[in-house]
Design goal:
Number of strands: 22
Distance between the termini: 51 Å
Radius of gyration: 24 Å
Helix content: 25-40%
Largest sheet: 7 strands, mixed
Strand order of the largest sheet: 1-2-7-8-9-10-11
Oligomer: single chain
CATH superfamily of the largest domain: Ribonuclease Z/Hydroxyacylglutathione hydrolase-like
CATH topology of the largest domain: Metallo-beta-lactamase, Chain A
Number of domains: 2
Shape: elongated
CATH architecture of the largest domain: 4-Layer Sandwich
Number of helices: 12
Strand content: 15-25%
CATH class of the largest domain: Alpha Beta
């Protein structure tokens, strides 16, 4: 369990969890994840963040190959969520640090997670400086990226930004750096997956924070999950990608998610897809039974149109579609075109409900909800094709008028 020296006397000492699949209880990480922690060797030695629960042994083993853990003087907690501080109590007991640094809001989180501990906790604010000897750490609060207690740590002498959850990805790999990871498409997908399931609601904060990051003299960005960015081209690329995702400019693609009982709604989904594709809008169809809600949400990174379908069940949609809409609404996507559809045997309320949920997300809705009684007929398929065409035309006009 070797540490990795990312800068002179600065080491990655985190853990790679190849078997992790359920990130934060709501988002999938199909190939595992990495919890990054960093050790700075100086006149004052610093551990920046810890790791997820039950991984203290791995962290301490990596630290011990650089120095005895008891030689750590300070601990910096950039964020108090337990994938970052899940073993903090064990580390504090072993290290007995002189001081533990958290943000101002982190003081509240610390009391919530570790009440009654007699620890030497110090709250810092943006611009505060921690002198280490040959280096210093400058703290910058980044509230709501993605928690109120979040902050980043900047080491100007090394041109290094320890960016906490910003720029993270769920990747489990023996690669430590983005430029050595061979599958660039997979990497980009994992960035989108992380952003669209975790960071998306805070996009306005992202747009305010990126100029602050760009003013720093940085040639390495080390997040708390996934791979490290090194080199100015790599850093510019991820900053530009973040800006694009935060702006949420609509793209000429669509995603259709649906559930079905006796295949009628599924047939409608495919017919609507035909109308979209015939009008030059590539489309992905995703059954909510076959696809996790976080995978569907990730598709929105490239899709300017969102179409939801469900048969009517007990005067409403099927549960997985309702859950998908609830999840999506909480992540606050913007600047989309939407539509709703579904079949029914009797009352047929589901499409109207789906449409109302899309409306609450501020989507443009160019057509009334499309309903089908019993099974699709030729007229139904014609109406589905027309709905796809209407959504496609509205989306293309939205893109053309984007400012």
């Amino acid at each position: 369990m070797r540490p990795v020296e990312i800068k002179k006397d600065i080491y990655w000492v985190g853990v790679v969890d190849f078997d992790h699949r359920d990130f934060h209880g709501y988002s999938r990480c199909p190939d595992g994840t990495t919890c990054n922690a960093y050790l700075i060797k100086d006149k004052k030695n610093v551990l920046v963040d810890t790791v997820e629960p039950d991984m203290a042994g791995t962290l301490l083993c990596r630290v011990a190959k650089v120095m005895p853990p008891e030689n750590i003087d300070y601990i910096v907690c950039n964020h108090m969520e337990l994938d970052h501080q899940g073993v903090l109590e064990e580390i504090v007991e072993r290290v007995k640090p002189e001081k533990i640094f958290v943000s101002q809001m982190g003081l509240k989180s610390m009391q919530g997670y570790f009440p009654g501990r007699d620890w030497p906790i110090v709250g810092v604010k943006s611009g505060d400086v921690l002198e280490l000897g040959n280096r210093k750490i400058i703290f910058q609060e980044t509230r709501m990226l993605h928690w109120p207690d979040s902050m980043v740590s900047y080491i100007p002498e090394e041109k290094l930004l320890l960016s906490n959850d910003i720029f993270g990805q769920n990747i489990a790999s023996t690669d430590r750096f983005e430029d050595t990871f061979n599958d660039k498409d997979e990497f980009a997908y994992r960035v989108k997956e992380y952003y669209y399931n975790i960071v998306l609601p805070y996009s306005p904060v992202v747009l305010k924070t990126l100029p602050v990051v760009e003013k720093l003299d940085v040639d390495m960005v080390a997040p708390d999950h996934g791979l490290i960015y090194r080199g100015r081209d790599s850093i510019k690329k991820i900053i530009d990608m973040y800006r694009s995702m935060a702006e949420q400019k609509p793209n000429k693609r669509a995603v259709i998610f649906y559930d079905t009982m006796w295949k009628s709604t599924e047939k409608m989904a495919y017919a609507i897809c035909g109308g979209l594709e015939e009008n030059d809008v590539p489309t992905r169809i995703m059954s909510v039974k076959a696809n996790h809600h976080s995978a569907i949400m990730t598709q929105l990174a490239d899709c300017g149109a969102v179409l939801a379908g469900s048969p009517t069940h007990n005067n409403g949609p099927l549960p997985l579609v309702a859950a998908m809409l609830c999840y999506m609404k909480g992540l606050r996507p913007m600047n989309r075109v939407g539509a709703a559809f579904g079949s029914s045997g009797w009352s047929g309320e589901a499409p109207k409900f789906l449409q109302s949920q899309l409306a609450e997300m501020g989507m443009d809705l160019p057509a009334d909800p499309l309903k089908c009684l019993w099974t699709p007929t030729k007229d139904t398929y014609k109406a589905c094709n027309q709905l796809g065409k209407t959504v496609a035309e509205t989306l293309k006009a939205k893109i053309a008028n984007w400012k």
